[in-house]
Amino acid sequence: MRLRYAADIKTLLWLALAAVNLVVMWTVPSLRTWLLPLACYFALCAGLVAHNHNHSPTFKSRRANDLLNHVATLFYGFAAFNWIPTHNLNHHKFSNGKGDATITWRHSNKHNALVAFTYPFVSAVMQAPLIDAYVKSAKAHKPQRFRSIVVQLVICWGLPIALSFVDWRATVFTLWIPRFASLYVIMYFNYGQHVHCDPYSKWNHSRSFTSPLLNFLLFNNGLHAAHHMKPGAHWSTLPALHAEIAPNIDPALNESSFLVWMTKQYLLAPFLPRLGTRQIGRAPMDAPEKVVSVEEMASAA
Ligand SMILES: [Zn+2]
């Protein structure tokens, strides 16, 4: 089980801590409420680990990589393979432009609390057909991949349902609530990272959040512009990549803190509109005749 990048010791440590937290919550009921925020954080991290891992595998061995997908699936709440059809093959291709199933502007390009906080539900529904097609295609043409998908689906749904019969209260606190929180927050992050950006621009396709604390806690997932320009780059290399490209990006798209940005957007901008986001460059619904993916634009440089 050899790592490709030493930085992924952190990935393994975080998953191990998630497991320890689950065991403690399961066996000591009086601590469940106190440890629930931590369980939500680790569930979120498991989702981010699955994201990173499906872009840039953690291990050299295929079997070890499969195993990591299975472990991340347990905590994340969505089978890890789902990242491939909806994210790698769709979102990264269109970057919130036409064709992206997870567009932030499906019903409105306005950015307010109602649009933002209902977005994860809209996005989840729109991702379903891509997942369905991917599973059917794997079943027909890729038996090995299909077996891995089945194992992930059993871990994702079968295991927590079975555990709910053993102790439903413990399962709600250790898995169901943290998983819902993780899925919701990850989809909302996607909203924040793309709303009012220009999907057709080489530099202004994504909003980045540069706070060192946020990026430490979330495996550099705040550095979204760098990630879109080089999706295969390992998460540990994103700060250097971001430093390289940051001067080219509209300063309005390089935010520091996610929480400050949310406060400005949802609490202050209703009274002081200049504190809210505004469309940068070309609006996503106004696609040019020929669309080139961000990754292609970046690699053509
Ligand atoms: Zn990605």
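^ zinc ion complex. The chain has one domain: 6-299. The two ends are 36 Å apart (CA to CA).
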